[in-house]
Amino acid sequence: MMHGLDLSPYFLAVAAQKEEKLSRPKPIRWVHANGEVTGLSSDSFDLVSLAYVCHECPARAITGLVKEAFRVLRPGGTIALTDNSIYFHVFQELSPVLFTLMKSTEPFPGRVLHAGFGGDDEKSGALLTFAPS
């Protein structure tokens, strides 16, 4: 069963309403919880996806999100992080002032690399896949 989790009751309601229109045979279970402390069972998911979340969070919260993702992940499972990248051509084409501002407020890529992960394709920005170095 697929689960969708968010801290915002509003966005969960919007997601549930959009999903209802799709009439899927296996509906998504929507969970209102903090991603750092989900209350979900350990070792219970094959895939955990954090999509456009980490760039909005302070370092402490990112650490909590990743720890919780590993806790609920089954052995051999996958964590997919999708987020903004300063290497993406759209950001590269910003004026120097805006690019510097964006880069200074988006420390996530640097923190991931500093934590010992290496990017497979750091320059393209279209897709960054991280694997333990």
TrEMBL record:
<feature type="domain" description="Methyltransferase type 11">
    <location>
        <begin position="3"/>
        <end position="80"/>
    </location>
</feature>
<dbReference type="InterPro" id="IPR013216">
    <property type="entry name" value="Methyltransf_11"/>
</dbReference>
<dbReference type="InterPro" id="IPR050508">
    <property type="entry name" value="Methyltransf_Superfamily"/>
</dbReference>
<dbReference type="GO" id="GO:0008757">
    <property type="term" value="F:S-adenosylmethionine-dependent methyltransferase activity"/>
</dbReference>
<dbReference type="InterPro" id="IPR029063">
    <property type="entry name" value="SAM-dependent_MTases_sf"/>
</dbReference>
<dbReference type="Pfam" id="PF08241">
    <property type="entry name" value="Methyltransf_11"/>
</dbReference>
<protein>
    <submittedName>
        <fullName>CMV 1a interacting protein 1</fullName>
    </submittedName>
</protein>
